[in-house]
Amino acid sequence: MDETPQPIGGIGSTGLQWCLSHLDSRSVADMASSLTSSPDTPPAVGARRWLLPVIVLVLAAAGWFGWRAFSPSQQVPAASFTLLDGQKLSTRDLKGKVYLVNFWATSCATCVKEMPNMIQTYNKFKDQGLEFVAVAMRYDPPMYVMNYSQTRQLPFKVAMDADGAAARAFGDVQLTPTTFLVDRDGRILKRYVGEPEWAAFETLLRDTLAKQA
């Protein structure tokens, strides 16, 4: 195996987006912690020399993508989703409801990791009126999405964003998972990039559903 460090410039924008979609804040934090706590042996020093700039680059890029996305309390955009059964659903159809829009991909490790908790959360709050739309990114093969939805028995609506229009409408979503919480007035209350902190997530959902019931 060639262990020669590669120049950061060789990552490219597409590769950087892939890296960001497969890393969350916990992953980056764990990586940084391991580097700073490594013994000062020659291999560890060499690893720190080229990995730390990569971490800085990833964090800077994540901040840039976040700057482009929606800030809380903005109105939800006019967007349309194509569900797996071919039916159309729009944000206009969801007006008056509390709902989550979760951008995900079957190739995204964090998306797959958080999905059981998303299912549990939806099942916990659906009787209180919570709606959920899981939007597969445009690069996700429809066959993979359908297979995942069926084998995991996803209980909520699953959509394909074949042309990327929904992701663009929601602030040009690039990172997965990205989840938006929308209230009954059509305001985006919270945007989560990566896996949420579940206790706080459920508290906000519970309060939003109760306050606007």
From TrEMBL:
Transmembrane segments: none annotated. This is Thiol:disulfide interchange protein TlpA. GO terms for molecular function: oxidoreductase activity. InterPro entries: Redoxin, Thioredoxin-like_sf, Thioredoxin_domain, Thioredoxin_ResA/DsbE_sf. SUPFAM superfamilies: Thioredoxin-like. Residues 70-210 form the Thioredoxin domain. The lineage of its organism: Bacteria, Pseudomonadati, Pseudomonadota, Betaproteobacteria, Burkholderiales. The gene is tlpA. It comes from the Bacteria.
